[in-house]
Amino acid sequence: MPTNPLRHVLGPVRVRSLIDQLARAVITVGGLATIVSILGIFFFLFREVTPLFTAPSAKLSQRLSVPALLSDAGPAQVAVDEHREIAQVFTSGAIQFFDLASGRPVVLKMLSQLTTRQVTAMASGGGTNTRLAVGTAAGEILLLKVGTQTEFSEQGERRKRPNIQAGAPIPVTNSPIVRLAYRFNDQGSLFAIATKAGRLFIASLAVDDPAGTDLKITELPQAPGAVTSLALDASLEHLYVGTSDGHVVHIGLSDTQPPEVRASYAVAASNTAVSMLGFLSGDRSLVVMADDGAVSTWGLVRRSDVPSGWTLAQMHTFRSHAAPVTAFAPSQRVKGFVTGDAKGNVFLHHATSSQTLLRMAIGEFPIRAVAFAPKGDAVIALDGAGQLSLYQVQNPYPEVTLDTLFGKVWYEGYDQPASVWQSSSGSDDVEPKLGLLPLAFGTLKGTIYALFLAVPIAIFAAICTSQFMHHDLRATVKPIIEVMAALPTVVLGFLAGLWLAPLLERMLPALAGMALVLPMLVILASFAWHLCPLTMKRHVTPGNEALMLMPLLAIGIGGCLWAHSLFEVWWFEGNIKTWLSTHLGIQYDQRNALVVGIVMGFAIVPVIYSIAEEALSNVPKSQIAGSLALGATRWQTVLHLVLLSASPGIFSGVMIGFGRAIGETMIVLMATGNTPILDWNWANGFRTLSANIAVEIPEAPHGGSLYRVLFLAALLLFIVTLVAKTARSCPVLTSHSRTVPSVDAVTISSSFG
Asked: Is residue 407 within 8 Å of residue 419, measured between CB atoms?
């Protein structure tokens, strides 16, 4: 049977074609999978971050009519339990409970102690509204404790039964009580009282004296205007008195000294009365509300120009009401609060972000009382028409805005606005500080310090091995440097924090000496080699000249280490830390940016070196030979030809190193002290975005503000790293040198003169 001679040829060709097609398909699928994976990571991070910037909302869930008995124009208090099952209205000596599920009244409790008395003032003893104080026209005080008890029926149904405990009226003064502030602690209760006659009193009651048999009353100095509001802080050390002329009088209270007026502050517009005063959760920020609808928060801050050293400063301003503010209630969980006005509007504010989040139009009648649900997910309001309105509030991340993340915020306890990261503290009342600016600054600081060390070393090393070093020596040196990239960063961080940082602290004068001595030795050695006769140079194999420098550098390093105490005496007056603090204002921390710069620079040197060395080695030898043949020196050829041709590769190496430094975690975590500060000082520590994620994520509640802000930090790192990795191939940056330029006599002559 005749055979086709082409069969033996076409068979292998078809096999090779199939292999090529299969390889092309595998590469295509792998590339697409990589792109899809990157996009998947991006969209996952984006999905976790998006809820941070969702606008808050409020929905009316219940509106009830209170009995006519409770619909007078006197003072009122409202409350709702944490499960939004029971609502409470207290006014005119009667307490009405409502079942919010059915909308029906549950219990109407008449207080026999107050049925024959006129209620003129009310005050809550804390954020839970479980303890109330009532002032009467007869100058008496009545203490109430209001709560609910959970009961279960035989069928297992859960029911809540209101529980009310009321004491006997306690006589305090002969004049009607028009303003009242109340606080209690483990030692007892404290009352601030303003009477119709314009007198101010402080009354204290021991915790074991509910009948008021041992009531202590102290009259306070007269306020410079009619008293319109009172606010007493939880520490029982500060009393703030609002007046009709727009001032707040600060009165200091002490167990050992009589009360004293410390200062008077203008907090409202001229001739505008302070309508209400209140504290945010934690009682550190004072909320001032005025008759013109203005709302602001104030806090005690340190001021050196004030004799007492403290002054009341305005911290935040909010959207103004169109009518006088008539009701106020703080949130029990966050630094938020609600205000109601005389036109039936209720505003939801948040102090940290300094913004008014929501407006709820209850009706056309004045708001008599408002309150937050304990979980902060509902607001209840009572208006002048006897309508009780319950709003469900969706506002899970009120403290997060672009300004709080990347700007300066005036936090409680701070003397001025600042950008701070402090996600938690020892107290639940301290507001979380989620400023990403110090972390982004720390990330940039650590990267710059690392690149400042790594880029010159890596590039000069690449030039040396590719252009000047003998090929045998290069074959040994290059793999050693590249193997350094495989060192675990956790090991480097461990060595940096526990070995290098203490060593540098002891040998800091020696390091300063090395910075001066070693460059001088290199320059002198180069000059000496230049002056050596050719007969001596011929004994050294070309490309091995760098080996002769190693012993000299070793001697220089050893000499600096030996003489570090002498350097400290000669240059730094015997103590380098004291000298830095006295002359430069630098406080040296053991774990600082210098340590991170050295160790992280050491970690990214192999990355930059490997890519730069390959780029430099790939410059055509013919062009280098042509440049040398036309009279250029070795260094002239490197500067004007090799570096220009290899610049895209060098730039790629630098950007890869930049991306590596941006995302470094373990070295920074173990060697910086993790202090989130805005400071370029090389002797101070810092905290980076990546290290912060590693530290905070185990403690972040799932779905909370901290949790999502950490995902935002991860998204920022992802974007920056992706940009850094892809910038090396940007046409705008590399188009000028994508191709190796040709070399001719005109080029050489113009370059070298």
From this structure: yes
